[in-house]
Amino acid sequence: xxxxxxxDNAIARDKAQTLIDxxxxxxxxxxxxxxxxxxxxxxxxEALQAAFxxxxxxxxxxxIKPVVVHGGGPQITARLAELGIxxxxxxxxxxxxxxxxxxxxxxxxxxxxxQLAQLITEAGGNPMILSGEDERLFVGEKTLLTENGIEIxxxxxxxxxxxxxxxxxxxxxxxxIPVISTVAPDQSxxxxxxxxxxxxxxLAIELGAEKLIxxxxxxxxxxEWPNRDSRVSEITVSxxxxxxxxxxxxxxxxxxxxLQAVRGGVPKAQVxxxxxxxxxxxxxxxxxxxGTLVLPD
Length: 297
Known about the structure:
Elements: H1 4-29, E1 33-38, H2 41-44, H3 46-61, E2 65-70, H4 73-82, E3 89-90, E4 93-94, H5 98-122, E5 127-131, E6 138-147, E7 150-163, H6 166-173, E8 177-181, E9 183-185, E10 191-194, H7 196-207, E11 211-216, E12 221-222, E13 231-232, E14 234-236, H8 237-243, H9 252-263, E15 268-273, H10 279-285, E16 292-295
Parallel strand pairs: 1-2, 1-11, 2-8, 5-8, 7-10, 11-15, 14-16
Antiparallel strand pairs: 3-4, 6-7, 9-10, 12-13, 15-16
Helix pairs in contact: 3-5, 4-5, 7-9
């Protein structure tokens, strides 16, 4: 039989052990940059949003330097519908008209970034809202899709070709958490809608990040989806490259981002299940981690 004092002592010992167990992970990431791609259910579920914001504030307060990159597909679709603008997708890419690109920019920065920054502030962090437009943080190149030998113009759609990270470095030096929305001007200044997963990878490379973490809506990478027993806990870049063509379409850009980041010099990249509250902390501060880890060969 345990008496109250003994029970309290046992709880205290467990809590102390948990804090001690964090120590090697704190030492490994102390002062390092961690790029986190925020997306999936974590973006639309209020409880998960708040948990993610607390994770970012926690990382900052213990001396790690988180950088958040996000897209916003569901929110953009909803806003376009409110305005009577139809959403069309070709090859998994949003066809983005001149009318729609302004909506994309507004939703990403003034809705999603603003809400997340407020939650981070409430959690005790110090966010800084940035966009790919700011100081040409991202410079993009227009994407043309080819289907059945026919070239299709997707409008204001592109991919990041150049990263100018000065504004991000200054924010980090000032003790801030950059919250970055993914639009990018091209060389002429025309604004493009770019994939947030791949933008996060390009930024992680340019920042010399210690790790890229990509939030998903599944438990990780499955080599034989939908076989739940085929989840991969670790994979090398060459193994991932061979597996990539067989993946489910929604997972491809996320795994491409991990592949691109590690190929570009980021020591490791990971997709994690953003449906789990505090999944970022679980990944960083527990030996088991969550999701699928991508490592160099």
